[in-house]
Design a protein that fits this description.
The strands form 5 sheets. Strands 2-11-10-6-7 form a 5-stranded antiparallel sheet. The two termini are 35 Å apart. The chain has 318 residues and is α+β, with helices and mostly antiparallel strands. It has helices at 15-34, 37-62, 207-213, 242-259, 282-293, 309-317; strands at residues 2-3, 5-13, 65-68, 74-75, 80-87, 92-99, 107-111, 117-123, 129-132, 136-140, 147-154, 158-162, 192-195, 217-220, 231-234, 263-266, 273-275.
């Protein structure tokens, strides 16, 4: 959970606040001209009320803290959801949380003292990579609605966006695999054959098969587990442009993970990642998706991927 970096609190007058300020100023001028103590009292009461509204909004907003674990990883060019947790020692019945992006809508929550309040925010579609999260604006009109008290929040976490999965238009280039000798016996024997391995019992060797083919094979009982080779997701085997290859590899990776099949991811210049069949490959899948997300992405000084508007538009068209 990452805490927010808070900026200075800003105060802006609203329509009612401006109207009340004009009325208080007019009453103050009239009281000076006519020496009317009652008008003086009313003008000072209005001024005190406005100052107290600013102070109360500032005091309540200053105690609000925002934390987040960041949004869940999602495919490229799809909207996302972002959960921000808010806490305060003081009650704040009306708090608006808004992402600092064009056309974003604020989310209104009520913060109870010493309790965690969650705000669900919408994130717009974005290209693949590890991208910085937009800043937030915490704002309130409480208690009188005369002033808009705001505070900008920057959270030092990013959003992981993996390539959008898409089935390859052309199948990847297959590599020849050696014959494992799993052909059933001609006699209809329910057992199967596999290539001979040092240490196999002599009684399991099928000498008749050796006489016909010249290869040593042994019988494998039906109950014996067969070691399956992982599916190789090699970048060099796929066809098309970079984004097409990454999308096809992501599609197969997610498909194999959902079906519990083993896979091995190979990207140029990156360490291989492998997940065993039927095992809990959540960590390997997450690591592989992150590797696909950041493939050939330049990084900025803060460690995020630098994606220009030109690159984003080109990938969106594709």
């Amino acid at each position: 959970m990452e805490a927010a970096r808070l900026s200075r609190i800003q105060v802006r007058p609203r329509r009612w606040g401006l109207g009340m300020a004009v009325v208080a100023l007019a009453m103050l001028v009239a009281a000076i001209n006519y020496g009317n103590n009652l008008i003086f009292l009313l003008a000072f009461l209005l001024i005190a009320l406005m100052i107290n509204g600013i102070w109360q909004g500032y005091r309540l907003l200053r105690h609000v803290t925002a934390t987040t674990r960041g949004p869940a990883m999602r495919p490229a060019h799809t909207p996302g959801r972002w959960t921000v947790e808010l806490e305060s020692r003081l009650p704040l019945p009306s708090l608006a949380v808004q992402v600092d992006l064009p056309d974003s809508e604020p989310v209104h929550v009520s913060v109870a003292p010493c309790r965690t309040t969650r705000a669900e925010l919408a994130l717009p579609p974005a290209p693949r990579g590890y991208l910085p999260l937009p800043s937030l604006t915490l704002g309130t009109h409480y208690p009188l609605g005369l002033w808009s008290v705001e505070r900008h929040v920057e959270l030092p976490v990013g959003q992981w966006i993996h390539p959008a999965p898409a089935e390859a238009v052309e199948p990847p280039v297959e590599q020849a695999t050696p014959d494992t000798g799993t052909r059933a016996l001609d006699e209809g024997d329910p057992t199967r054959l596999r290539a001979y391995q040092p240490g196999d019992p002599v009684r399991h060797i099928v000498f008749r098969h050796y006489a016909k083919s010249g290869r040593l094979v042994t019988r494998r009982p039906e109950g014996e587990t067969v070691a399956t080779r992982p599916t190789i997701l090699d970048y060099e085997r796929f066809r098309g442009g970079r984004e097409q290859r990454l999308s096809a590899m992501t599609f197969l990776l997610l498909q194999h993970s959902a079906e519990g099949r083993s896979w091995r991811l190979l990207l140029p210049g990156q360490p291989p990642i492998e997940a065993p069949a039927g095992g809990n490959d959540a960590s390997a899948r997450r690591q592989a998706l992150r590797q696909l997300a950041r493939f050939e992405r330049p990084r900025d000084a803060e460690g995020f991927d630098a994606v220009s508007a030109h690159v984003e538009m080109a990938e969106t068209v594709r």
